[in-house]
Amino acid sequence: MSKSAVRSKNDAKSKSKKGKSKDKKRKQQPKHRFTAANADKFLLYQLSVNSADIDVDFLEKVYEEHNPGKTPLHLREDFCGTHAMCAEWVKRDAARTAEGYDLDPEPVEWGKQHNLSPLGDEAASRVALYLEDARNDGRKTPDIRVAQNFSYWLFMKRAELLDYFRKVYASLDEGGLFVCDLYGGTESTEDMEEERKIDGGFTYVWDQDEYLPGTAQFTCHIHFRFRDGSELEKAFTYVWRKWGMAELKDLLAEAGFPVVKSYFEGEDEDDPEEGDGNFEYDEEGENCESWIAYLVCRK
Ligand SMILES: C[S@@+](CC[C@H](N)C(=O)[O-])C[C@H]1O[C@@H](n2cnc3c(N)ncnc32)[C@H](O)[C@@H]1O
User: Fold this and answer.
1) Would you say the CB of residue 79 lies under 6 angstroms from ligand 1?
2) Whose CA is nearest to atom 9 of ligand 1?
3) C-beta of 50 in contact with ligand 1 (< 6 A)
4) What's residue 218's pLDDT?
5) Based on CB atoms within 10 Å of each CB, which residue in 125, 179, 180, 281 is the most buried?
6) What is the percentage of the chain residues whose pLDDT exceeds 70?
């Protein structure tokens, strides 16, 4: 897999800070920074999967493309988890605000401490978080609304997903964007595990455990393996429906969006197995082993 959950564009960002500390200091540090015993699964997830800076770059680029000269100010992040995108959004501009929706208090609390707090009180105060269903009405009309890391795949029935997309459409003003990501490719429903080493000293494992072709029910896990031999098994489990791009485009059009465009990630020049973090408009895509893409929908 899966430049998808693998999100290879993240790799280049975390640089090792080796070599700065004196020998004495080095001796005092634990041999292995990350182990199953000390693991913070949200930190490991964020280091492996999230790339909020690249995601927000993309939002800014496509908003300008679809609304030249207009400035987007309010972002709504559905299924926000640790709300890394909300934090990155407000960090870039003091006029910006964001709201995040997630049912689970645990990642939301973690995000407050680790993603919002470092921004300082003023910027943090421009993010409103709600422990609510992503289908609930928002408090403020978003210029851009996002559903990231395939979260909307938890809607397994066509009618359920269409209902969500209709609510998204209704929540936007004319010109407003809905942006969601997806992945696919010939390997994307195979039972397989893919490992990726993360800077800092652990291995991220994307485990495509079971795909049922009759329903497209797709069960995946994330495991983390550490240099000391320990493992955090099933740190995260997802039971999704594996939606295809063409059926999603149809559903989004049916929900009302007059413009639904696909943007596929380019290949890394040095390693064609990896993505380069650049997403370009492409209506058709290429039938490779693994691809990752955004759908950008304009009201
Ligand atoms: C795959 S995680 C994605 C988190 C985040 N978007 C990211 O990119 O890291 C899915 C999130 O959706 C949340 N969730 C599940 N069902 C939900 C619902 N109906 N409404 C809002 N959040 C939901 C879960 O609690 C979880 O945090």
Assistant:
1) yes
2) 81
3) yes
4) 98
5) 180
6) 89
- Residue 160 contacts by C-beta under 8 Å, 6 or more apart in sequence? none
Which helix (H) or strand (E) segment holds residue 54: the answer is helix 52-66
Q: Into which CATH architecture does domain 47-183+243-298 fall?
A: 3-Layer(aba) Sandwich (3.40)
pLDDT band, residue 261 (cuts 50/70/90): very high
Beta bridge partners of 204: 196, 224
Please give the Cα distance from 210 to 162 (Å, whole number): 25
What spacing in Å lies between the alpha carbon of 27 and ligand 1's midpoint?
Answer: 40
Q: Indicate whether residue 10 lines ligand 1 (CB < 6 A).
A: no
CA of 185 to the centre of ligand 1 (A): 24
Q: Is the CB of 131 under 6 A from ligand 1?
A: no
Single-letter amino acid code for the residue at 160: E
Tens of pLDDT, residue by residue over 159-212, are: 999 999 999 999 999 999 999 999 999 999 999 999 999 988 899 999 999 999
242-257 confidence digits (pLDDT tens): 999 999 999 999 999 9
β-strand pairing of 74-78 with 144-147: parallel
Partners of 129 in the β-ladder: 100
Task: Give the CB-side neighbour count of residue 245, counting CA atoms within 13 A.
Answer: 23
Spatial CB neighbours of 60, under 8 Å, sequence gap ≥ 6: 72
What sign does the CA torsion over 298, 51, 291, 152 have? negative
**Position in ligand 1 atom list of the atom nearest CA 238:** 1
* Nearest of 251, 249, 282, 253 to residue 265 by alpha carbon: 282
Atom 25 (ligand 1) nearest CA: 104
pTM: 0.90
Q: How many CB atoms lie within 10 A of CB 139?
A: 12
Question: Is 48 a pocket residue for ligand 1 (Cβ < 6 Å)?
Answer: no
Tell me the chain's radius of gyration from C-alpha atoms. 19
Token pair belonging to 35? 């182990």
Across 261-285, average pLDDT:
90
